[in-house]
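Whether sequence alone determines local backbone shape is best considered at the level of individual chains. We regard such an encoding as a compact summary of how the chain folds. The sequence in question and its structure tokens are set out directly beneath this paragraph.
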Amino acid sequence: MVTNGKYNRRREDIGNVISLEHVNVCIPDQRLATLFYISGLGLTRDPYLVTSVNNMWVNAGRTQFHLPTRDPLVVRGVIGMVIPDRRGLLKRLAAVKPMLKGTKFAFRAEKGSVSATCPWGNRFRIHTPSKRFGRTALGIVYVEFDVPKGSAPGIARFYREIVCAPSRVTSAGVTAARVQVGDNQELIFLETGKRVPAFDGHHIQIYVANFSGPYERLLTWGLISEESSQHQYRFEDIIDLNTGEVLFKLDHEMRSLTHPLFARPLVNRNPDQTNMTFGAGHETLSWALPYSD
């Protein structure tokens, strides 16, 4: 441990992945998506980009959901979020319940979180801000994936050696690979004995500081799935670096820090504001808590 007696400087190290910026799943109906993501969760449709009916971008702090209008895609696991005001969240979800009747929508208050399921089956675990998530007051903080038994060590090694993301294997209750992908953001791969559904094409997007290093290593293994642009490439297969066996499939959209969209300010509204209870100066919602040491 490196310390000067007052500060542990390694606590600030993130690794090569700067942030998990968005999760992309397709949805067939923007009306139902609006009811769940905007009216229910209290998030904000991006007012500047992708505003037509073929796609919608939904802001959650400094993170987003990208929701192209196609046949639905479902993450094989749980999306973890931080949203302030548990009581307000439960009230909003209850309000949209009648309009989402006949879909897979559900929600439940649990100890320490709220579970919610979107109209097409994507599962969410929603926390209130806490020390566990640093200064995050609003946003995507982790994505959990169900993976086959025995795959966690190989997955952790893959991210550590190929992507240069700090990774570790934990075994408290369930064996899991935990990969750091930003400040208080993780990808968590939980081993399960149940059948893991086939990959349907959903993706995550991350920003990496060393853009060429992972690219060259992925290229050596023949894992690049898309040469998107000067600022972006993609890969899907997470492999065992000893055998080449595919351990898990997940589409990764890899962006450089020179990508035009990096650190673009995102609009986040205060969902408690209405035309009947409007308070000037309270239209927006901060994505971060005040700094505390």
